[in-house]
C-alpha cells in the first residue's frame, strides 16, 4: 500500500497561481533578509547567504531587494508554471538557465542576469552552479508564503518559515503572490560579478585574549580550506591549529554573524546565516559584514585567508557595499529595448529598506 501525502508539507493541489517543483535541487529554500530582532528568544536570523545576489535577482524581477526568493545551492531546480504567466530572474553562481516547452524541449536559454517571462505549462530549469555555490531565483511579486516573526526565511533545523520550514521536494507547489507577470520589457544587469572570497577581512575579538600570540599569528597568516562539513549554520575550516591561551570554554554569550569560534581542536568555524544565537567557545575574530556575501559563496575545497582590519575600515567597507547594492538599480538596462528603465524604477522605490536589509550584520 502506497504512503499518503506528508502532512508536514504544504498542499500540492489548488487553482491559485504557483510554481510546481519537478526537481528540487539538493538544497533549495526560501530566504529573504532574515528574521531580525528575535535572537534574544533563541531564534536564529537565517536569511540569504549572499544578500548581494538576492538583491540583484529581485531588482531584475521588479521587486524590492530584500523580497523572499529561492536560495539555490549547488544545483538548481526545475519548476513548472501553473499560472497565467510569471517573470523570473536568477543571480549568483554561474548556471545554465533554460525555458522548456510543454513537451520538455528547450524553447530558449536565458542569458545571465536577465529577467524572463514564462507562461502556463512552460518549465524553468537551472543547472549546476559554479563560481559560487549559491544563487537566487526571484519572481515578480514574490512568493505567497506566510510571514513568521516578520520573515519568510526558512530555518531547516527548526522547521520554521518558508514553505512549512522545509527544503523543496518534488511535487511541492509554491504559491505566487501575482497571478500574472506585469507587462514590461525584460531587464539585464551588466558587468556584475559574484566571485567567491579568497581573502576575508576580520576584526579581532571579542575573545582574542583567549588565544596565544602564536595562535593569532597562525590565524592571520595561514591558509585554511573549507571542509565538506559546512552548511548554512557554519563553515568549518581545516588547516593549521590555533593555540588557546587558557582553555577553550567560556560562559556562553551572543553570536554575531561571521563570528569565528575556535573549539578544542583548534580549527576555526565561521558562523553563518543559520548560526545558533549563543555559544560557549571563544571567538578569535568576526568577519566584517561587507565580506559575508562573498564568504557565503565558497564551496567545500576552496581556500581562504584572513586579513585583520580595524573597526573604522569595517564600517567604511559596509557603507561601500550598501551603496553598491543601491546603485544596481541605476545599472539595469533593457534586455529587449523599448523601456525607460530609469523612469520606471524611480516610480517604484525598489531600493527602500536597503539599510534595514543589513541591520543585523555587525561590522
UniProtKB/TrEMBL annotation:
This is Carboxyltransferase domain-containing protein. Residues 40-325 form the Carboxyltransferase domain. Coiled coil: none annotated. It comes from Rhodoplanes elegans. The keyword Metal-binding does not apply. The keyword Lipid metabolism does not apply. Transmembrane segments: none annotated. SMART domains: AHS2.
Amino acid at each position: 500500500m502506497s504512503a499518503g501525502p506528508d502532512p508536514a508539507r504544504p498542499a500540492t493541489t489548488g487553482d491559485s497561481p504557483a510554481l510546481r517543483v519537478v526537481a528540487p535541487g539538493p538544497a533549495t529554500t526560501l530566504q529573504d533578509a532574515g528574521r531580525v530582532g528575535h535572537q534574544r528568544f533563541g531564534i536564529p536570523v537565517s536569511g540569504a547567504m549572499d544578500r548581494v545576489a538576492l538583491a540583484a535577482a529581485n531588482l531584475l524581477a521588479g521587486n524590492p531587494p530584500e523580497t523572499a526568493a529561492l536560495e539555490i545551492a549547488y544545483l538548481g531546480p526545475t519548476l513548472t508554471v501553473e499560472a497565467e504567466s510569471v517573470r523570473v530572474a536568477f543571480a549568483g553562481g554561474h548556471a545554465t538557465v533554460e525555458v522548456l516547452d510543454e513537451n520538455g524541449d528547450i524553447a530558449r536559454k536565458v542569458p545571465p542576469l536577465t529577467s524572463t517571462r514564462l507562461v502556463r505549462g512552460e518549465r524553468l530549469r537551472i543547472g549546476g552552479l559554479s563560481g559560487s555555490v549559491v544563487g537566487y531565483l526571484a519572481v515578480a511579486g514574490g512568493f505567497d508564503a506566510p510571514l513568521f516573526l516578520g520573515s519568510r526565511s526558512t530555518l531547516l533545523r527548526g522547521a520554521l518559515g518558508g514553505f512549512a520550514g522545509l527544503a523543496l521536494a518534488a511535487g511541492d507547489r509554491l504559491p505566487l503572490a501575482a497571478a500574472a507577470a506585469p507587462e514590461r520589457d525584460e531587464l539585464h544587469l551588466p558587468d556584475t560579478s559574484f566571485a567567491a572570497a579568497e581573502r576575508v577581512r576580520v576584526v579581532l575579538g571579542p575573545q582574542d585574549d583567549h588565544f596565544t600570540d602564536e595562535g593569532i599569528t597562525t590565524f592571520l597568516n595561514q591558509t585554511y580550506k573549507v571542509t565538506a562539513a559546512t552548511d548554512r549554520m557554519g563553515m568549518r575550516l581545516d588547516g593549521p591549529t590555533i593555540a588557546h591561551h587558557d582553555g577553550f570554554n567560556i560562559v556562553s554569550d551572543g553570536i554575531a554573524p561571521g563570528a569565528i569560534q575556535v573549539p578544542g581542536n583548534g580549527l576555526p568555524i565561521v558562523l553563518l546565516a543559520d548560526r545558533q544565537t549563543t555559544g560557549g567557545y571563544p571567538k578569535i575574530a568576526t568577519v566584517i559584514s561587507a565580506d559575508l556575501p562573498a564568504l557565503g559563496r565558497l564551496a567545500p575545497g576552496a581556500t581562504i585567508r584572513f586579513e585583520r582590519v580595524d573597526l573604522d575600515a569595517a564600517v567604511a567597507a559596509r557603507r561601500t557595499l550598501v551603496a553598491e547594492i543601491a546603485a544596481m538599480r541605476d545599472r539595469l538596462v533593457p534586455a529587449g529595448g523599448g523601456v525607460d528603465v530609469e523612469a520606471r524604477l524611480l516610480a517604484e522605490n525598489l531600493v527602500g529598506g536597503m539599510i534595514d536589509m543589513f541591520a543585523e550584520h555587525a561590522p
